[in-house]
Amino acid sequence: MDPLTWLSLGLQLAALCCIVGALLLYLLRKVRVAEVLPTDGAKTVLVTSVDTALGLQIATYLSDRGWRVIAGCRSGGLGARLAESWLQAHVAATPEDQQPPRLATLELDVAREDLLEEAARAIAQHLPAGEHGVWAVINTAGCGGRGAARWEAALRGNVLGALRVARSFAPLLAAAAADHPHAGRLFYIGLTSDTACESVSQGLGLGAGQSLGALEACETGAVCAAARWGTWGAARALRGALRARGVRVVLLHAPDLSALDVYAPPAQLSAPSQPASRPESPSSDISGASASASCAVTMPGEAAEYSAKVLPAAALRLLEDALTTPAPKDSYYLKLKHDSWFTRMPSLRVGH
């Protein structure tokens, strides 16, 4: 054969080897992901509060992605009603051949020891057969500390609440870690945009002629910073204490959100009005985003429309990756992007 024929055969052989190598890498990756992801009976996640928009967004996103979500909330509160409305609409819209979302609300308050203990017992008693713990706990409970009357509540809910959550649910996390090497993860909201030491120190340098409102805003910033840094320190201490039990403590920093944004309730989008006759079709404008796209949840009687859109799709995917990766980092940064990248969270309607 002439040299050109040999060259052609060589190029074809190289291309064939590249194709085979790519297929092998793909299959190896699929096997690795299958080993990392939890089994169907072990995908239980506790979100400690859906009374915040962030907690509601995380809970509905993970539920739509196939996780079994337990949503902590105040009894009869707005978060509980919105979560139940979202679940009813999505269960009704799920085809018969697909698994419907799994989300259950549970009364929980991180500031009350009795409710935390009752919640831990209830979760342990109602776990699926063969499951002995929860895969992860995501603590979204807390408050921003606006106003002098909220200072103590902010410190109790954020710092002491973080310690109470660890003490109450560490046994369930350790039990899950004993069943699966990648289970047992405890997530806390870490630092926010208003916890920079520079902004606090500049505010504390206000002159005597500054208004009382400016001084109160400065003090509020100082309280927010103290609460967030306190949570950061508590998480670092818990990380060392719980490592021996197989529990991994992870901080979720929100550098583009203030503490008030992180703990804000779901935002009302429209005044009470008659609900739509059926849910809108899910939006598909975000590649790779969850199917928990925009929809209107119908409830009888007068209804108000709410939104729980806080994080973009990329941040939600990063959170889910932190839930499943074999070796999670100590910290993740949930950054915001342009509005076109936001996951369009459900527009939820709740009866008055």
From TrEMBL:
Keywords: Membrane, Transmembrane, Transmembrane helix
UniProt GO molecular function: oxidoreductase activity
BP-aspect Gene Ontology terms: steroid metabolic process
Tree of life domain: Eukaryota
Entry's transmembrane regions: 6-28
Keyword Lipid metabolism: no
InterPro entries per record: NAD(P)-bd_dom_sf, SDR_fam
Name by which UniProt lists this protein: Estradiol 17-beta-dehydrogenase 2
Source species taxonomy: Eukaryota, Metazoa, Ecdysozoa, Arthropoda, Hexapoda
Region annotation (Disordered) ranges: 268-289
